[in-house]
Amino acid sequence: NLMHAIQIWTIAIRPKTLIASISPVLIATTMAIKIGSFDWLIFLCTMCTALGIQITTNLANDYFDCLKGVDTYERKGFIRVTQAKLVSHKTMRQAIVVSMLLTLLTGLYLVIIGKALIACLLIVSLCLSILYTAGPYPLAYFGLGDLFVFIFFGPIALSGAYYLQIGSLSLEALLAGIAPGAISTAILTVNNVRDIDEDRLANKKTLVTNFGKSFGKWEYLFCLLTAFGSSFFFYESHPFALCSILCLLPASMLVKTMFTYKSPTELNLLLIKTGQLLCLFTALFCIGWML
Question: What's the angle, vertex CA 69, arms to CA 134 and CA 154, rounded to 5?
């Protein structure tokens, strides 16, 4: 029935992680509004395209991780619909194609506005959303997942969204992208620490499988410190943006969990809470920027 189908596809798109694509668009738009430049249609198309790229990545990840034997009945993470046989391989392939086409559709208007730069960015982002887990050299299987997430959900996403509103690139937008990129990488790190055993069995080489669980814990701390540290770039031009540092208190609780957790299920909750931390950071940063 329809409700059951909606439930399954909601699980597949992983709504708890979608703040990773929403955050840079909101921050870039706030920066544009402060300058006095804002277009509603560009904002909506940018938001839909950013979400489309992440949803395509998530669906492809669900499908190819199942195909490559990474997701098994042993997995400790959230349900993966292909592995759980809630969606057939054929249906998931169709869903990936539909997601890509819808993303191209919303991105078409952005290409008209942003010309060649945005066209390249859209095509590269969509190709990488598939190549993240597909093909002979998937990024996530060669320790490049963290770098991909940091760059594309951080400086590139924010600079692209800013460029669409303002019509030019800026160092300020690039620097503002460090924080959402770093916190999104922290979300991925939780995922990699939790899945270390399954990833090793499937020969999926993440930074955590290469360097160990302890490395993953310190990577998580480093990501959060990088995020909050980057706010100091704006202490002269936008001092109130530093109110995002209020996130340090909840962040310290999350770091404590990462260093003291006993079971992988605790990491599932930590993953959700790290997503919530990115929500809080985004809200505080945007409010501070407008003051």
Answer: 45
Tokens standing for 133?
A: 């887990």
- Cα–Cα distance, 185 to 183 (Å, whole number): 5
Long-range contacts of 124-127 (CB under 8 A, 24+ apart): 125/53, 125/152, 126/53, 126/56, 126/100
pLDDT in tens, 190-239: 999 999 998 898 888 999 999 999 999 999 999 999 999 999 999 999 99
Please check whether residue 242 is in contact with residue 288, taking contact to mean a CB–CB distance below 8 angstroms. yes
142: β partners: 205
Distances (CA, A) of 117 to 54, 255, 280: 20, 38, 31
Q: Which residue matches tokens 């955050």? A: 23
Among 17, 43, 15, which Cα is nearest to 180's? 17
| C-beta separation of 17 from 187 below 8 A | yes
Tens digits of residue pLDDT in 52-82: 999 999 999 999 988 887 776 667 778 899 9
**How far apart are alpha carbons 237 and 229 in whole angstroms?**
16
Does the pTM surpass 0.90? The reply is yes
